[in-house]
Design goal:
There is one protein chain. About 15% of the residues lie in helices and about 45% in strands. The protein has about 110 residues and is of the alpha+beta class. Strands 1, 2, 3, 4, 5 and 6 form a 6-stranded antiparallel sheet that branches. The longest helix is centred in the last third of the chain and has 19 residues. The chain is elongated. The model has no long low-confidence stretch (mean pLDDT about 85).
Length: about 110
Amino acid sequence: KVFKIKVNNNSPSLVFTFLYLGDCDMEVRILGCTSGVSTVTIMGRARVILSPIIKRMPLVGGMQFQFLHLPVIGYQFDGLADLADLPGVKSRIRKSLEKKLSKKIVYPH
């Protein structure tokens, strides 16, 4: 879907479902103990604002990306970080991550 934003009439925006299925393999080794993250998933409703529109190539002077709501985030810990899957620890990590994302990339900031 493409919408016009009322704030700036010359800025088209694209609203879409964002889905990231990452198969990352981040690993940290501290004092011989290995831990890391092996999978990251992010899904949510997002918007890209194209602004300003210019009359020559590349036609768009800039882009803004923002989630319309807090995205659903999934991750899988490996090694010693598996301890973070414990119920109390996991909820604290999730709350901290959601708080930081809300301040940075969820509309309105």
